[in-house]
Amino acid sequence: MQFAPPTLEHGLGMDQLGRDVLSRVVWGTRSSLFGAALSTFFAVGLGLMLGGAAGVLGGWVEWLLMRCVDVLLSFPGLLLALVAVAILGDGRWPASVAIGLSLTPMYARWIRAMMLSIRETLFVEAVYALGASRWRVLWHHLLPNSMGQIATMSTVVYARALTNGAALDFLGVTGSPSVPSWGRMISEGRAFLGIAPLIAVVPGVLLTISVISVMELGDFWRIRR
Amino acid sequence: MVKTNCLHKLTIVLVIVFLLVSFSGCKGDTQKKEPDQIVYGLTLVPSGIDPHIHASSELGIPLRSVYDTLVYQDPETHEFVSGLAESWDISPDGLIYTFNLRQDVTFHDGTPLNAEAVRFNLQRILDPAANSLKAAQLLGPVQEVRVDSEYSVTITLSVPFVPLMDGLSQPYIGIASPKALGEYDLETYQFHQVGTGPYRFVEYIVNDRLVLDRNDDYHWGPSVVVNQDVPKVERIIFRFFMDPASRALALQSQDVQIMGELLPTDARQLSEEEIVRLESVVIPGQPLQFLFNTAQMPTSSLEVRQALTLATDRQAIVQSVFQGYSPMAHGPLNANTLYYDSAVEGLYAYNPVQAEALFNSTGWIDSDNDGWRDNAGVPLEIVLVVPPWGLAPEVAQLIESQWESRLKVQVRIKQVASFPMLSDEAKKGEYNAISLNFAGLDPTVLDSFFLSDGSRNWSRYTDPELDDWLLAARAELDPARRAELYGLIQGRIMEQALILPVREYVNLTGVQLAVHGLHFDTQGWYPYLTDLELSP
After folding, report:
1. Is B401 exposed, middle or buried, given 0-12, 13-18 or 19+ CB atoms closer than 10 A?
2. How many CA atoms lie within 13 A of B90 on its CB side?
3. Could you tell me if the ipTM is greater than 0.90?
4. CB of B400 within 8 Å of any CB in chain A?
5. Domain containing B302: what range?
6. What is the pLDDT of residues B317-333, one digit of tens each?
7. Which of A3, A12, B79, B444 could crosslink A196 through cysteines, CB 3.0-4.6 Å?
8. Which of these ranges, A172-181, B24-33, B174-183, B350-359, has the smallest mean pLDDT?
């Protein structure tokens, strides 16, 4: 039963505890993809707020926000996520939030840089000259004009969230060991690479494919625009 | 032109000098013989390695050979033989122990061993400031340590304590140099240990290595080892392999010569391929067990604890996780522990039908038909807290699937990273079962777990009668009566289903074929490094 090779009934065989590898991969896909989506949602939301505010308001607000972001950027993202996990508690969702937090500073900086470049364009100056408020400029001009880039950047964040999430799973800080995820399957399966390679190889390949696909999707959006 | 020529010549001269220097360097390297050394793989980094203070079983593996103990215990007969103490005398009432020390022993720092040194060590352990996790418990109710003469020391107990000799034979009460103990404080001594044993402590770099060099003055080995003089192997380096998957690889690549706690699947493969010799040692003491929390719903109910135990197919766990290398455990003690009572065998033979009936009798049933038992609409949840070592997480996962499928009760596993974190969880008390086991030949190993005020009473169980038995058993001088008391104790623990015993703890050690003479002391964990030999 343990380490059983693939059969019709168990498409990818069984793992070290006699569990069906295929169904664990499927459930792991769910938790990995959803977890990364939550992280991205978090990072994009917070990053847009911070970067947008800094880019639009300028002045001392920009200075303060960007120094905070710089402090966060000076830590490796994964280390930041580990610290956040230690504070938020272990489990899938706290870990996703932690990864989202760790990706926020990078994203906020991008958004600000983008806002700055649009802010200086002639048409924005013209809109200001016509008497528009800052918020009108933000909502009607800055955001619509940067949607494409925001989407492309978000795919990069999503890819990072996938790999960082897998890393936390691999380290075993994301809650119960019996809940399958790609990172955890790679971590557990590598002890049995010689006997049953599929346990670790399949989630590893899936992780690679997902990251590449997401990046390609971002490229596709950028080119299409 | 002349100038360029000069530069060319200078370059050539420099190149020649450089080549000469590097070749001579090579020559020097080939002439210098690699020291005879063994790399020994440890499986976790203890939270501290001061034997008087810390409790990890791992620390005794190197330190057994850094220190000598007052007495040694014969692994076969369990008789005590002389160590640093040449002879001893125990008063008939079991209260006064007098030890006469060897007069020719010196510590690694050159200071002589005498009665004052022994007193100094025992006082250090008993000092509440040391916060000793194990050694102080091994000493028990010691009231006074008195120096009678230069080489004679008397220990007086307030009540009889039979396992004292067993404790004195363990590396936790290794006798250290008072000079070194005085130079360093409770925090730093662990990095500068000085004993009298066959190996000297050279350095300990946390997470990286611990190095021992042989003691060239050694000639006072006990009769339990073959080689009572200077050890054969010059240097032993301990390295840490916390990731179980890396252990077999390190053995295969010849990076280590001895490796403890192999994964059972790897052990099987390595021994079939005849790359290494497998030494499997059953460690006396407690089995791999889960302590049920009797203060937390629903394991506060006896029926629930019994049902959970009955619904656990331990044979299946032993077969799959431990590849059959480990005997299934039945009670609070492994079968090779002193006073093991075989009456516990078969008490909780796997019986899912009876388990279900018992659980139903508690009234916690699936009232809303969602597939899970609930308590007034809220699904019942059993929380298991496990440490990362000893394959406890794997065992917990199998238990989870067994309980969930057979008892329809939700299980959540919480894995912690270290012993301090495990203790924290135990203090918080928000668990239904937690895994921890201690090793020890004498059944007093149960005391801290099952006395009402025991420091590891993680079952949170209070039973005055059990307390009386435990206290009487450790003071009982008559072996027959002691056996009877420990029979009662083991029976009560299982009757009350305070623990879920899983497997007897077996240390699977892989040894390269070139290494000979590995054997362990009575406690099972600690090797006598002095008998190791390397064949060329």
Report:
1. middle
2. 13
3. no
4. yes
5. 288-504
6. 998 888 888 899 999 99
7. A3
8. B24-33
